[in-house]
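thought: fold this chain, then report.
action: predict
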Amino acid sequence: MQATPCFLVLAHTDPCLCGRLANALGPNHDVFVHVDAKSDIRPFLEQRVHSRVAFINERVRVSWAGFSMVRATLQLIRAALLQCPSCTHLVLLSGQDYPIKPLDTFLHHLAASPSRQFMKLGVMNTPARNPQNYRITRYSFLDQLALIPSSSLRTWAKVGIKAFTYAFRRKPISGLEPFFGSQWWAITPACARHVVNSVKSHREFVDFCRYSFCPDEHFFHTIVGNSPFVDGCEVVYDYPAENETVKAVSYLANLHLVDRRLSHFFDDRDFSLIQDSDKFFVRKVTSNASRKLLDLVDAQILHK
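observation:
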């Protein structure tokens, strides 16, 4: 069976890199791009990309670690399911990613496990030592904070919200075992349709996640982990116990080589690390700081 993935890209910056990424994924595959509604879309549209790249119209104002990231991802999923009915996988990427394996290698990897969901599920409902439990036991209002126009008012709001979140704890939704993991995954269309249908049928869970921290790293995972599609996932019970989210998320990465430093962008000094990696994409890169690295990847790995 030949894998025919559909790529979903969440972008908010660096139009040049977004265009370069889209072309690296094509021209034989559909690429849907969501550009953060806070960003000017015109520089993205001006990039020279292949004909199967589509910028979706239903754009969301995305806040870091807010539920708006889930909403943007759902818009991409719906667009792909509607316009690519024959695809075998939906692959979620960031606009700051880049392939580090030839596309044929990735396609063979997908085709080798046609019913697999490339979504590692980290178990959250473990003893309190689990540093990820705060995602479901504390409130988060990052989307709401982003709506406050004044920086001074946001500062005071943050103080009040911090006091509120420490004073009040949340009870997880009963009947659902919580999971979390990397935001970036590849799932089958059947699994994606289940996710979309669950948004309609599990309103209590959706409303719960609206006020959770970084729900894009547990919303989809919890839905899939409580469905028949969990049999196609890798469930991870033991992962780094350090109280550092980045370490846990990089450990649970599905397809990406992820650096554990949030502020670090890969550059040409990391080429040997990338060349030796068994992952298929690298995160994060930029068109400026990573230009030499991307040129090396194109020439020596992707053979472009």
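thought: worth noting. The chain has a mean pLDDT of 89.
final: tokens above.
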